[in-house]
Amino acid sequence: METTLMSTLQNFADRVRPDRVLELTRRLVSIPSVVGNETAAMEAAAAVLKPTGATVSILARTPERPNVVARLQNGPGPCLVFNGHLDTVPPGNPELWESDPFQPAQRGDRLFGLGALDMKGSCAAMLHAVELLAAHPEAWRGEIQLQLVCDEEDSGHHGTRYLIELVQAGALPRPTWVIGGEYSDLRVMNAERGSFKFQIRFEGRSTHTATARVDGVNAIRHASMAVLALERDLTRYHPEVGFPVISINKIEGGKHLSQVPSECVITVDRRLILGEDKTSALDEVRRTLDRLAQEMPGFAYEILELRDSFGRERYGPPNATPRDSAVVKAVREAHRLVTGAAPEWFVDWFGASDGRLFRYEGIEMVTYGPSGRGAHAANEYVEVPSLTVQARTCVAATILLLQSQEPSKDGGA
Question: Which residue among the candidates 38, 87, 240, 354 is catalytic per the annotation?
Fold first, then answer.
């Protein structure tokens, strides 16, 4: 990297104000926004963004589920999107929290509160990065968007899925790149495992318990044998997403205390690595169950499709942005500039994020977020210094991507 550019990047990254990032994080954490009730948090974020000069829009499929989209436009060029969610899961048992989950509490470098890590701290870091970039249009050209969405903790139907539908309809520009802020311990995540949820129904034959060993076929017994056979470690490994996972997370069967059950249904959650898909996963399940059928008289099963409340199959394939893509390289280089060290790759376990939705649209996307622990649990916290690093990295990555770029057909004003 040439010395002048490096100096420019360092100059702008150093303008990030840690106190401002912390202030914004505290403000967002203090506003309850459990999934389905995000309006107040969105209004607060929009109020912060409007003084930047950005075009700030409230976009919603239904009025009670709003999203905030802030657009900074500075001539022709690519479109870089920062994406994060402001909804949280419920706080759970309040007695398990050492402090009020909606009153941010700082102990040392840790800020505790519901959503501090997942992911209001990250949204605050990206928000401040946008504040800084808005004040210095001489450093970049093209379009910068900040998307603060609802509904990530549920289906995404009202959040990122809806914004992508607006892109498809031409109501929003197609992003050239997306940087997502889900917590990653300041590591770079370019890929996610896929998720495939389905059910297996086991058939038995009902009879009175007294004649269970004579006339009955116990569907719960067969389901139990299947669970033991399926529930195991999968040892295949992919260097970008780690190991696949299979977990039987629900079982339903039986009608009466003195009746042998004729049916039992298990629900399976299978996480897929790159190179796998739902067909290969089901083939593996069938091979296991067919072996049991050969060993157990009367063993019969049927695989059932699962759909969500909007009629979508509960399947999302594994997805990746190439490690040599422009946005991945920019985030890695920006992190190196800010911290003095190359970032690690994030290959740990991770649930599905909204990032996959952009990749399914063919949009290059990378995840880079703060450090902390306890997401979806009591005493969730974010490491405050990591938010400053995130904000500085976002600023530097933006300038790397948008400096002196030629106009792009995929984004911009």
Answer: 87
